[in-house]
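Minutes, project check-in
Item: structure for the 329-residue chain
Input as provided by the requester:
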Amino acid sequence: MRLTYYHGRVPNFGDDLNGVLWPALRPDLFDESETVAFVGIGTIIGFPCAPYRQLNVFSSGAGNDPLGRWADRDVTFWCVRGPITAALLGLEADRALCDGAILAPLVPSRFPAAHHDSGEILVIPHWQTLDDPGWEEAARLAGYVLLDPRGSPEAVIGRIARARMVLTESLHGAILADTYGVPWAAFATSGNFQASKWLDWTRSLGRGFEFTIVPPPSATGFLRYGRPMAAIGTSVSVTDAIAMRDMRGRTEQAARPAMTAKARVKARVKAWAKRSGLLNRFYDMSPARTAEALTGLARVVRQPSTAGTITQLQTRMMERLDQVGRSGR
C-alpha cells in the first residue's frame, strides 16, 4: 500500500511526521501501489485521495472534510484518533486508540526516546497563525521561545521533548508534549481553533479538554478566520456534545459558494483596515498584550498523561499496526 497524507502549501510538522514515522516503524507495509493507501496522522478522514480505491485508516481524525467523499471506497478503519471520531463514524469503541504521533519515541533514530529538560518554555502557534506579525516579539517579551511548527518533524519534536513547558495552539504541539511528559496548556487566538479535534484526542487519554483565549499580537487572524468562540481571557471547557455537534457540522457542510461582489468589497475594506492598523487599535492588540496573556497561561498548565497511560496506548497501537501487516490488504 502507499502512504498518503495531507500535503499543504507550507510544511507542518504534524502532517509531515507521517513520512518519517510509519516507514521507520513498518517499512514492509509500503510500496508504490496506485490503488491501495495507508491513511495516517491528521484530521483527514474524507480528504481527497484519488486514485486509491482501498483505504487503510490508522489513527486519523475526522473534522475537516465531508465523510461522503469516501462513500464509493473500500475503507477499513483500523483505529482512529479518539472516541468522538469513532462515534461520528459509528465504529466500535475499540477502534478509538489515539493519535499516531504518540509513537514518535519508538523511533529513537529520528526522535528522542525520552524527555530531557532544557529549561525552555515553548510557544507554538498554529502554523497558519504564524502568518500574522508580532509572534517573535511576543515570545521574547514573555521570556519564552517561539517554536515554528512549520519546521521538520525531527527539529520540532526534538525541541518539544527537551522543553520545560509548552504553550500551544498547535494540536500536535500538545500531543508531543503530553507524550514526552512535558506540562502543557492550549490556547486559541481566532475562529480557526478547532476544539472538537482536541477533545477527540484528550478523550483517548481518558481526559477532558480546556483551553484559553489569548489575544494575538495583531488582528489579522480575526480578518481571515473570525473572532474566537469566547471573549479574550476566557477559559473554555469543551463537552462531548459540543464537540460532536461541531465535528458533525464540519463533516456535513456543503462547498462554500463563490465570493459575492459585496463580499469582495468587504474584503477590500478589511485589507485597508489591516494595512492602516485600525483593527489593532480597535481590539487593543499588541505583542506586549499577547506576552502578558502567555505569562498568565504558563501559571495554569496541565500536567501530562502518566507514562503508564502513554506506554499502554503505544503498545495497543503497535499491536494494531501488526494486524495491518498480517491482513494482507
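Outcome recorded: The radius of gyration is 20 Å.
No further action items on this chain.
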